[in-house]
Specification:
Number of domains: 2
Largest sheet: 9 strands, mixed
CATH architecture of the largest domain: 3-Layer(aba) Sandwich
Number of helices: 10
Shape: globular
Number of strands: 13
Strand order of the largest sheet: 5-4-6-7-1-8-13-12-11
Bound molecules: coenzyme A
Structural class: alpha+beta
CATH class of the largest domain: Alpha Beta
Strand content: 15-25%
Order of helices and strands: EEHHEHEHEHEHEEEEHEHHHEE
Radius of gyration: 19 Å
CATH topology of the largest domain: Peroxisomal Thiolase, Chain A, domain 1
């Protein structure tokens, strides 16, 4: 009997680190406010010329090496991102070309922060149709290009970075027990980028400010908790696992207060929750795969752990995955 398993993980972020103290010099904010309200101390911000595929390829190479899979053996590359190198071709196709993954199909998933778990969900279903496939799932962003550095309510929150996982079917390994996704397009106006699509195309009168992230933070906060709890319960039910059996949580890294409230709702101590928001901020689709990879590297995940991952983002979208480590 073969199960869908995680074969390897990787992650990568720009070298350039911007601290809260750096931000104090360019906008009316303080390290104290940012740490207290969000838990963020620093974030990685791409330098001019650095692009999505640089970090997607680096994380993919690590994940492939750990999986023992050659790029040429990949059948599918799914990139959860809204900040690929180009509007067209897709980020997955850019990665395919650089890796030389010639027999793979490449596609992007546009689900904002939920992109990586959406990608896992697609990979899970492909593998249920054909267990011989090898699939690379990537999630991450160069989101800094969409930040208004004059807007302290959004600029301090986000950072750049990408993570990846290779998924396949095996008789043993880190088993993917369930992946669930959800969305509500009626709430799209709570978190959006107005310009560059067909509604507000780039014309000669285009206002660059229309490419910046707009967010109603307080409202997002409430929806984030409710939907991450609901989708997690659905994923646990489908995995046949009770909340009591969950031993590790890898949550979306958008705000430490959201993470703490989630832990409280799940009645779990923070020692069982992986947190790296202090060093990355919110990397959108990157938060889950970067945290996942760091949790693996730090041996925070131990054999036998039941791991719950849950995420929330623009769309609105949300998702959860349950893995037996
Ligand atoms: C964005 C967020 C951190 C704001 O925290 P908050 O406690 O709701 O803060 P508010 O927006 O109510 O602002 C409180 C005050 O701080 C000020 N403020 C906002 N950003 C600030 C900053 N960077 N530095 C200093 N002060 C700031 C506001 O102007 C406001 O001042 P006022 O009371 O004088 O008007 C929080 O709402 C959040 O994390 N929301 C969810 C975000 C999320 O999950 N997004 C991603 C989904 S992918």
């Amino acid at each position: 009997m073969k199960y869908n398993v995680i074969l390897g993980t990787g992650s990568s972020a720009p070298e350039n680190v911007v601290t809260n103290h750096d931000l104090e010099k360019i906008m009316d904010t303080s390290d104290e406010w940012i740490v207290q309200r969000t838990g963020i101390k620093s974030r990685h911000i791409a330098r001019p010329g650095e692009k999505f595929s640089d970090f997607a390829v680096a994380s993919a190479r690590t994940a492939l090496e750990r999986a023992g899979i050659a790029a040429s053996d990949l059948d599918l590359i799914i990139a959860g991102t809204m900040t690929a190198d180009y509007i067209m071709p897709s980020g997955a196709c850019s990665v395919q070309a650089i890796l030389g993954a010639d027999k793979a199909t490449g596609m992007d998933v546009c689900a904002a922060c939920s992109g990586f778990i959406y990608g896992l969900s697609i990979a899970d279903k492909y593998l249920k149709c054909d267990p011989d496939l090898h699939i690379l799932v990537i999630g991450g962003e160069i989101v800094s290009h969409h930040l208004d550095w004059d807007d302290r309510t959004t600029a301090v929150l986000f950072g750049d970075g990408v993570g990846a996982a290779v998924v396949g079917a095996r008789s043993e390994g880190h088993r993917l027990l369930a992946v669930e996704t959800g969305s509500n397009g009626n709430l799209g106006s709570l978190l959006y980028i107005q310009g560059g699509g067909s509604a507000t195309p780039i014309t000669k009168d285009f206002d660059i400010k229309d490419t910046y992230i707009q967010m109603k933070g307080r409202e997002i906060f409430k929806h984030a908790i409710k939907n991450m709890v609901d989708i997690s319960n659905r994923a646990l039910k489908n995995a046949g696992v009770s909340l009591d059996q969950v031993t590790k949580i890898i949550p979306h890294q958008a705000n430490i207060r959201i993470i703490e409230m989630l832990a409280h709702q799940f009645k779990k101590p923070m020692s069982e929750v992986f947190v790296n928001i202090d060093r990355y901020g919110n990397t959108s689709a990157g938060t889950i795969p970067i945290a996942f990879n760091e949790a693996v590297e730090a041996e925070f995940l131990q054999p036998g752990d039941i791991v719950l991952m849950t995420v929330f983002g623009g769309g609105l979208t949300w998702a959860a995955a349950v893995i037996e480590w």
